[in-house]
Amino acid sequence: MKHYMRYALLAVAAVMLLLLAGCNPSGGKGADDGSSSGARAESSATAGKPQASSSSSSAGAKEEKLTVKVYYPNEDGTKLLAVKRQVTVGKTDKYTAAMASLLEGTKEKGQTTIIPKQAKLRSVKVENGIAKVDFSQEIVKNFVGGSTGETMLVGSVVDTLTEFPEVKKVQILVAGKPVETLGGHMDLSQPLARMKDLLK
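RE: above sequence
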């Protein structure tokens, strides 16, 4: 009887050992799967970070400072005077940045702002050496100068854009269309070359 009990206990112990041995591999496998999934998730998250970081740094690298010359009439309306300005290019091109700076006006002594402050810059496009600069209708509606004022206004636009060597001529548009004149004194139907006489 004692021998029978001993064998029975040994059999139960053996079964328990087998059960425990069977659980460990499955438990280990579950742990492996979990860590593997975690590693994949971490790898995905890490893989995404450099892309975002490199994208933002490249976006930042696109912007740079550029020194341009913009032109305003002197107080006598006899010539144009250059002002050096620093503009930011990247989000916008250098031609648009230069014209936007011109439209800001001047506070320099001996100079005057000729472009009506109500006028808005719609766009600047350069193609085949010709810059087409498009203003809102306010540049005509709010223009109050005579022949000298119109010459100075047109000259300030033309000479500012022809500061860029690749721009040979400038055509002024209003609301996207060519105009014959702004104030009735200058023919603007054709692109204009640099107005050098105004710089002497």
